Amino acid sequence: MPLWWPLLLSSLLFAIGVYGVLVRRNAVLVLMGVELMLNAVNLNLVAFDAYFRDVLHGGQTFALFVIVIAAAEIGLGLAIVLLVFRTHGQIDVDTMRELADREEPAVAER
Amino acid sequence: MTVVEVLFLLLGLVAVGSALLVVTTRTMVHAALWLVVTLGAVAGIFLLLAAEFLAWVQILIYVGAVVVLLLFALMLTKAPTGPQPDLDARRALPAVAVAGLVLAVLGTTVVAGFHGVELDLDGAVVGSAQTTGATIFQQWVLPFEVLSVLLLAALVGAIVLSRGTARRGGE
Fold first, then answer.
1. Do B77 and A20 touch (CB under 8 A)?
2. What pTM was computed for the model?
3. Which residues of chain A have pLDDT under 50?
4. In this predicted structure, what is the pLDDT of residue B85?
5. CATH number, domain at A75?
6. How many Å lie between the alpha carbon of B163 and the closest alpha carbon of chain A?
């Protein structure tokens, strides 16, 4: 099989993940887009591992590590999402603007 | 075309199609379920690319744990089960443009860079549990230990985040 098949598939999945992160308004759906991107990276690592015939299996091991990091990320991310839901009552990422650095007049208007 | 190539193309089509459904469906629970299909197809591709142990870890961790966590989060945030008209941002065109640009750059790079390079899978060392375990605990022990500390930190962080609200809610 040509090497660029898995690489192109991984690029496709990554682009779809980017689209999901950018376009979704629900924070949980944004996290799903992040998962798609992490999976695309894993696919790349595994494809190059198979291509280089790495005796240390560096690609597969790093893919394993990425999966662990993804699990930690999703656990923390969902804890934050639930915290936001309890304090705000909704998890629409478009309306969460408290962290923005506001100009002084805008503060005075409130 | 060999059997492996046909299987790869089929699994790739399934993965891309279900990934598109994940980011476009109007029903939130369906997005999580289509994510299962995507991750399962990618696990099948891992099997084709001689990463056997990784494929089962993918099924266990992603399909077994991550998607269940996502479904629990949807449930706890009182996500409506029916189709929702306002799941996407009002202006989707910039997102399409950025994603298309990412695909164009990455796609042209990998196709131009690796055109004509063959991935020979005959006689590849299958990453079974034995070989993966041996390499992790012989060559990659230090990153492995660092990752366990990272998992502990994530665990403590998640507990602190949940405890903080519980105390505030009780006051």
1. no
2. 0.89
3. 110
4. 77
5. 1.10.287.3510
6. 10
